[in-house]
Specification:
18 helices, globular, mainly alpha, 65% helix, single chain
């Protein structure tokens, strides 16, 4: 017979999987609404069909590297509903993989058993901080959750001592969108120069494969089309990137809006919002590049030399890790924050990667509470979950985007990683 404590432990262990099942079943109805008008079908599947026919793919709607159009080819012959349903299943797998890897990189214990104190509080706080951004990739139905999963799986492989397979995962992510290429200099800094080369090679080769499999009838390279149509001519002003200027939550987008609107106090100012003039664009470029260089310099100074990583056997992953043992997770958390801030375009869906720094900061707050961490937590709550449009309404929500609060969330998360690496270093040295 099952004893009362065993029964309670079983219920606790099943709580998280059951919550996940309920969420994915309910959200499936939202995801599957109007398949033909979904971003997945109207953008990526249509680009895949053009690719398969040897036609140009870069134009209205598709402004991404050719790799994502190639990866969507298996869906090109399916009906909109079937295509979107299978894509939702892929996103479910990616969501689970991303969450499990983030939990392990933050030092969490096995999720197959009831969480010992204080881990339930860490889980709740970390998820609360990142929930607004964690759901965003499912709202836009694009590749962002898959990219996040590849990033976190790659980081986990690095932590486990498998640098080449980890670099392959990171390269796959970089092939779909450019910002993960920031992991290449990170790997070189850490001493994984071969892995850095593998990352870049995978990203480039994956984007050249469409020209081998489905060459264009006009003889042009898809990768060259992407460069000339999207990179060399598209970003005519810093922060302006084929989208509403409010949606760009990178440093470039923030300074673009700051020079155009200032810090508006009414959403009426935002109703007519054309792109800024080229003269303002040059100032936005100077401000964003100089701020980005400063953040890179501060991060390099804060992290100093890379600390040695000790891979744990798979059996040891069931137990929680001390804060002094999660150095790679902290480093990866800093890199993903810099990705968001330094990218020419970071939308809310891209911010799914803040899940990693959110859980590390949640662990800091729960285990080592002080006034400074309380101030950091307050700032993250204000710039993150408390400013979602579902909480404060569309008008105020647009204002928070104009103020660049998601970018401030990324900046505060980066500051949290600077604090975390200091705590990690102190704990490691005290042993």
């Amino acid at each position: 017979m099952t004893t009362a404590p065993e029964s309670r432990s079983l219920r606790q262990a099943l709580l998280l999987p059951l919550a996940g099942v309920v969420f994915f079943v309910i959200y499936g109805f939202v995801f599957m609404h109007q398949p033909e008008q979904s971003q997945w079908y109207s953008c990526f599947v249509r680009a895949a069909r053009a690719l398969r026919a040897g036609e140009p793919i870069h134009g209205e709607g598709y402004m991404y590297p050719p790799a994502m159009a190639m990866l969507a080819v298996p869906w090109a012959g399916l009906s909109p509903a079937v295509s979107l349903f299978i894509w939702y299943l892929v996103n479910i797998v990616a969501t689970i993989a991303a969450f499990v890897c983030v939990w392990q990189l933050a030092g969490g214990p096995s999720l197959r058993r009831p969480l010992p104190p204080p881990w339930p509080a860490i889980w709740l706080l970390g998820f609360a901080l990142a929930a607004r951004f964690f759901v965003a990739p499912l709202e836009n139905q694009q590749f962002d959750m898959v990219i996040a999963a590849l990033l976190f799986v790659g980081c986990r492989r690095l932590w486990r001592g498998h640098e080449i397979s980890g670099a392959v995962c990171l390269g796959l992510a970089a092939a779909m969108k450019g910002p993960p290429l920031l992991f290449a200099p990170y790997l070189a800094w850490r001493g994984y120069r071969r892995a850095a080369a593998v990352l870049v090679t995978v990203a480039v080769l994956l984007n050249l494969m469409p020209d081998v499999l489905w060459p264009q009838a006009n003889g042009r390279l898809y990768l060259a089309d992407w460069y000339f149509n999207c990179l060399s001519s598209g970003q005519w002003a810093a922060g302006h990137w084929f989208t509403d200027v409010l949606l760009n939550q990178s440093l470039a987008g923030f300074f673009n809006r700051l020079l155009r609107f200032g810090l508006p106090l009414s959403s009426q100012v935002l109703e007519a919002r054309p792109a800024i003039a080229p003269t303002h664009g040059s100032w936005a470029a100077v401000l964003s590049y100089s701020t980005g260089a400063l953040l890179l310099a501060l991060s390099a100074w804060r992290f100093r030399k890379p600390a040695a990583l000790v891979a744990r056997p798979a059996a040891a992953e069931r137990a929680p890790r001390a804060f002094g043992e999660i150095r790679l997770g902290i480093e990866a958390g800093a890199v993903v924050c810099l990705m968001l801030l330094l990218s020419p375009q970071s939308s809310k869906a891209h911010y799914v990667v803040v899940l990693l720094p959110a859980f590390i900061i949640a662990r800091l707050v729960v285990e080592r509470w002080n006034l400074w961490l309380g101030a950091l937590l307050t700032g993250l709550l204000i710039t993150g979950p408390l400013t979602a449009k579902g909480v404060i309404g569309k008008a105020l929500g647009d204002l928070t985007l104009a103020w660049g609060l998601p970018a401030w969330f990324a900046l505060l998360s980066l500051a949290g990683m600077w604090v975390a690496v200091g705590v990690q270093r102190e704990e490691r040295c005290s042993r």
